[in-house]
Amino acid sequence: ALLVAFAVAIAIGTVILTLPIASAAGSWTHPLTALFTATSAVCVTGLVVVDTATYWSPLGQLVILTLIQVGGLGFMTGSTLLLFVLVGRRTALRDRILVQSTTGIPELGGVTILVKRILLFTVVAEIIGTIVLTVAFAANGQPFERAAWWGVFHAVSAFNNAGTDVTGDFASLTGFADDAVVLTTIAVLIVLGSLGFAIVGDALGKRRWVRFALETKLVLGTTAALIVGGALAIAVFEWSNPATLGGLPAIQRPFNALFESISLRTAGFSSIDTGALREASLFVVMALMFIGGASGSTAGGIKVNTFVVLLVAIVSTARGEPSAQAFGRRIQHGLIYRALSVALLSIAFVFVTGLLLELTTPPDFPFVHVIFES
Questions:
Q1: Does residue 186 contact residue 173 with C-beta atoms inside 8 Å?
Q2: H-helix or E-strand spanning residue 329
Q3: 356-361, long-range: CB within 8 Å, 24+ apart, which pairs?
Q4: Closest by CA position to 305, among listed 231, 208, 198
Q5: Secondary structure (3-state) at 23
Q6: Neighbours of 66 (CB within 10 A)
Q7: E strand or H helix at 229, and its extent?
Q8: Residue in 194, 365, 180, 338 with CA at minimum distance from that of residue 268
Q9: Which entry of 1, 217, 310, 336 is 20 to 30 Å from 319 by CA?
Q10: 313, exposed or middle or buried, with CB in 10 Å at 0-12, 13-18, 19+?
Q11: Is 202 helix (H, G, I), strand (E, B) or coil?
């Protein structure tokens, strides 16, 4: 049902974006361009072949924003409900109780309550983000109507980890590298969306680290390590690059490196020129993108949960332990097998896609860029 819903959303979006009323020039859009844009929006990838701000009309931009919202909610609600239904119906009572305590559902049949809480989580985060961003954009010199639209669009795009912007000229957020309010707000929205309702709900509900579910501890700890590690790597590799961090005042470089680490891992916004990143930085970003965000979130990747399960298994094996353990809890072998399957299949898919792109792109297109896009 989820796959059908996504296909229908993409089809409807493609048809509307093809119409003259969806383009700023009032002309028909090539169906392939419309299809790619609709697919990218629903799948919240942020990839575009035409500039969102200048090519599409206000209606076209609204359609894209709606597709982003539908896609993000679909990922978060669909995957969380799937987890709830599978665990709730097909495993032991103790596992159902574990899901109940993790999601904060007062009863095992409260699927409706779960959906409402996910929607509330989404709406509250996006409304607060919209208000803060609108004020920030207005203070930055934008007319109120544009500031309000930018606030809505970027709040929704950031929370859903889409990375699509309407600042124009494919510039993303490079014009706001010195605006701490804009970058901080978008970064917070990205992190909330990439964690998902289950993790955020568990953390807010229990409030104490010792009471968090094992999954929450693993996801929060790993997410923090990835963000900090990515920021340090980008800062080291790009500090003297005049086309990226090196072109900013020294006091702004650490914060922008942190923003890049947060955004490029799961979203796609950028406060510096991504195309000018050194190859070492691209490799770091590729690793972060491949891992992505948490299960049940709006982010992509193989998921932090998958990565950390494999990491724990590797560490436990290196220590000679008979089973994988984290925070005093044993991780079932079945979970490790699933995580390994997801990781290997994803690696294979990336390389196959990379090969196809290599065969269809100009000869002078750098191979690292091909793999990056894949």
A1: yes
A2: strand 329-330
A3: none
A4: 198
A5: strand
A6: 17
A7: helix 214-238
A8: 194
A9: 217
A10: buried
A11: helix
Q: CA–CA separation, 177 vs 282, rounded Å? A: 20
Q: Which helix (H) or strand (E) holds 279?
A: helix 279-291
Q: Which two tokens stand for residue 2?
A: 């989820």
pTM for this model (two decimals): 0.89
Can you read off the two tokens belonging to residue 18? 């093809």
H/E run at residue 326: strand 325-326
Contact 226, 284 (CB under 8 A): no
- Torsion angles phi and psi, residue 329, rounded to 5: -115, 140
pLDDT (tens place) for every residue of the chain, 374 residues total? 678 888 999 999 999 999 999 999 999 999 999 999 999 999 999 899 999 999 999 999 999 999 999 988 877 776 656 555 555 444 444 444 444 444 444 444 556 677 788 889 999 999 999 999 999 999 999 999 999 999 999 999 999 999 999 999 999 999 999 999 999 999 999 999 999 888 898 888 888 888 888 888 999 999 999 999 999 999 999 999 999 999 999 999 999 999 999 999 999 899 999 999 999 999 999 999 999 998 878 888 999 989 999 999 999 889 888 888 877 788 888 888 989 999 999 999 999 999 999 999 988 888 999 999 99
Round the CA-based radius of gyration of the chain to a whole number and report it: 21
For residue 180, the SS3 value is helix
Query: Tokens for 167?
Result: 């600042």
Residue 368: phi, psi to the nearest 5?
-65, -30
Both tokens of 212, joined, read 């968090």
Long-range CB pairs of 83-88, under 8 A, 24+ apart, other chains included: 83/198, 83/295, 83/296, 84/111, 84/114, 85/111
